[in-house]
Design a protein that fits this description.
The complex is a heterodimer.
Chain A (H helix, E strand, L loop, with lengths): L1 E3 L2 E5 L4 E5 L6 H17 L4 E6 L3 E6 L6 H17 L6 E9 L7 H8 L3 H9 L2 E7 L6 E4 L14 E4 L3 E5 L2 E4 L4 E3 L2 E5 L20 E6 L2 H12 L7 E3 L10
Parallel strand pairs in A: 6-14
Antiparallel strand pairs in A: 1-2, 2-3, 3-5, 4-5, 6-13, 6-15, 7-8, 7-14, 9-12, 10-11, 10-13
Helix pairs in contact in A: 1-2
Chain B lengths: L3 E6 L5 E3 L19 H10 L8 E5 L4 E5 L2 E7 L4 E3 L2 E2 L6 E3 L4 E4 L15 E6 L33 E3 L29 E5 L8 H9 L2 E7 L3 E5 L10 E6 L4 E4 L6 E3 L6 E10 L1 H8 L6 E2 L1 E3 L2 H26 L13 E8 L2 E8 L2
Parallel strand pairs in B: 12-20
Antiparallel strand pairs in B: 1-4, 1-11, 2-3, 3-10, 4-9, 5-8, 5-10, 6-7, 6-9, 12-18, 13-14, 13-19, 14-17, 15-18, 16-17, 16-18, 21-22
Helix pairs in contact in B: 1-4
The chains are: A alpha+beta, B alpha+beta.
Chain lengths: 252, 361
């Protein structure tokens, strides 16, 4: 096992090298993953096919016919140093409008019952914090968000649904997330966004990237429909802003 | 008129693939692509195409296709009974086709039951490549999310596949066949090379020993996403779950039940199970031809050994491209003089200069 400073290099076959910063879910650790990705993307050395950030590591896919493993390791050292200089507070907030309850969120009542909170409180707590996107995975465009108010934690449905429409926003245990494509699932659905968080024909296909912050914003049915129409015609651009301060919405 | 193929029956699982949708895994988008990229590229080269043009991946029971327009096709990979107008047609050969021809797979093996003909996947490449929309820089089908390929799904009766513009010198490529020494000879019994990691330290010595010394059987629950294996359970040191990380092509996941799963083309991009090893990329093509019920063994390898195997394969494909150039530039008409018994060329492919000589034996 090789190490560069305190990062571990793990071989993942003949065409992938994993740079592992730790084994826990931690935002500071994840910030190092994103920083290394940025540093590598910036130099985009020939032979690197793509880099995939996860909670705690960066997978570097390479073409061993164009870039030998030893040369890749040599590239990683300066990139890790450069990545180390990046400050943690960088990042953007993507505002995602959500219409809570009703047909869009058929399980909102379940969440109220499980948490003992009123409908208004659930919505206020769910949209009241910026959530950090650690990584995307599981299905195309699915963002793993951290930092949901733990008072909202609700177990999954006992009987998963066969089909959940894309854009549905749900809670599963301490996690919250958006279904990016129509799929089966067991999350408690509390609302739906009119935006396509994943659209394979759009550039870029995803609205949320790893390292972004997500802010849910409650909208009514009428706004939902008008944004849906605008977004469908490619005219709606979700609001983004720079993330200020380090301690806002820090995940537990 | 460019070549078109009307689907009369779709077969068991026939999809449009290329070498995969690389570059979008950070967005959670699986790579997909041909399960056996070696035969896939050979089929394309023989059909006169670029190696990464979209072609059909045919699985076990192939489709029946009616030709509209004209062009050329080539089939490479497992011998699944490929026929042209009801007659057995040669694999690994450029075949001219025209309006009304019928391409089919009758599912029976021809005379070639050697390792070269064994397997469950064949690739049918058509001159010009299959012209489905490019989605995220690839034409590969990702079935689970219905993205890419022909409407994101396997082919059905009634579908019409349009091919791109005929590649240059197509008529000069007619009957071009893969030289014997460039036909992959797959040893279907050979163990698969696998590089330990990225979580080999999650397993005991005994666990690693079991993995590398046991025979596993491919389970019925195997598909383009992954092959589940039956055999000795591999014990973990502490637990099978990790905080999610990336799942590379060929990763061998070992969940809590201890039975390994080899993750293949349609794998999800990330996951939370320990990965004991990753199969050498070149050997995945061999695995992709094996079917449920067949055995798999693993042998320890280094990343460098995996890279060497890939280089060897790339060299063979480059040589096939070179042969195609030679074939296309052969003399046009039969000479009245005595037939040549030897010849030599110098040619340049991708900036490299090659001397080619031949001699009648």
């Amino acid at each position: 096992m090789e190490k560069i400073e305190d990062a571990r290099l793990c071989d993942a076959g003949d065409s992938c090298l994993v740079v592992e910063f730790g084994t826990t879910v931690d935002r500071a650790l994840n910030a190092r993953v994103q920083a290394l990705k940025k540093a590598l993307d910036a130099i985009s050395p020939p032979g690197i096919v793509e880099t995939v950030p996860t909670y705690r590591s960066l997978a570097v896919y390479y073409d061993p016919l164009r870039l030998e493993r030893s040369d890749l390791v040599a590239l990683l050292l300066p990139a890790l140093e450069k990545g180390g200089e990046t400050t943690e507070s960088e990042g953007r907030i993507v505002t995602i409008p959500v219409c809570y309850g009703g047909t869009h969120g058929p399980d909102l009542d379940n969440v109220c019952t499980a948490t003992g909170l009123s409908l208004e409180e659930v919505v206020a707590r769910h949209s009241g914090r910026d959530l950090y996107c650690f990584m995307l995975g599981f299905t195309p465009g699915f963002a793993y968000l951290g930092g949901m108010d733990e008072a909202l934690a609700t177990p999954r449905l006992q009987n998963p649904r066969a089909l959940i429409p894309a854009g549905s926003v749900g809670i599963a245990g301490k996690q919250t997330g958006i279904y990016p494509i129509d799929s089966p699932g067991g999350w408690q659905l509390i609302g739906r966004t009119p935006l396509a968080v994943f659209d394979p024909l759009r550039t870029p296909p995803t609205l949320i990237e790893a390292g972004d912050w997500v802010r849910f914003e409650a909208v009514d049915e009428e706004t939902f429909l008008s944004i849906q129409a605008e977004a469908g015609a490619g005219r709606f651009v979700p609001r983004t802003e720079k993330k200020e301060g380090k301690n806002h919405g820090t995940p537990a | 008129m460019a070549l078109r193929l009307r689907v009369r029956s779709g077969g068991l699982l026939t999809t449009v693939q290329d070498l995969g949708r690389w570059g979008y895994q950070a967005m959670g988008m699986p790579v997909a692509g041909a399960m056996d990229p070696e035969f896939f590229q050979i089929a394309n080269i023989l059909a006169g195409n670029a190696p990464n043009d979209a072609a059909l991946e045919v699985t076990v029971l192939g489709p029946t296709l009616l030709v509209e327009g004209q062009g050329a096709v080539a089939v490479a990979g497992a011998d699944l009974g490929f026929s042209l107008n009801g007659r057995k047609a040669p694999l690994m050969t450029n075949l001219s086709v025209r309006e009304g021809d019928v391409l089919s797979f009758d599912g029976t093996r021809g005379s070639d039951i050697s390792a070269a003909g064994g397997g469950c996947r064949a690739y049918l490449a058509c001159s010009g490549g299959i012209d489905v929309p490019v989605v995220m820089e690839s034409r590969s089908t990702y079935l689970r999310a219905r993205i890419g390929g022909f409407q994101g799904r396997n082919l059905k009766a009634g579908d019409l596949l349009c091919c791109g513009e005929a590649p240059p010198l197509l008529e000069r490529t007619c009957d071009f066949t893969c030289p014997e020494h460039l036909r992959p000879r797959r040893d279907l019994e050979a163990p698969l090379r696998a590089v330990p990691g990225p979580q080999d330290d999650a397993f005991s010595e005994e666990g690693l020993r079991l993995f590398f010394e046991s025979a596993y059987t491919i389970s019925e629950q195997s598909d383009r996403m992954g092959y589940r294996l039956e055999g000795p359970s591999i014990p973990h040191r502490e637990g099978a779950d990790i905080v999610s990380d990336a799942i590379p092509l060929g990763a061998v996941q070992v969940p809590g039940h201890g039975k390994p799963i080899v993750m293949l083309a349609d794998r999800q991009t990330t996951g939370g199970y320990t990965k004991i090893a990753v199969v050498a990329t070149a050997d995945l093509a061999v695995l992709a031809q094996r079917m449920p019920g067949q055995d798999v063994r693993f042998v320890r390898a280094t990343p460098e050994e995996g890279a060497r195997a890939l280089r060897e394969r790339a060299n063979h494909l480059a040589e096939l491209l070179l042969f195609r150039s030679t074939y296309r530039s052969r003399p046009k008409a039969v000479s009245l003089q005595a037939p040549q018994t030897s010849g030599a060329w110098r040619m340049t492919v991708e900036g490299k200069s090659y001397d080619v000589s031949w001699q009648e034996l």
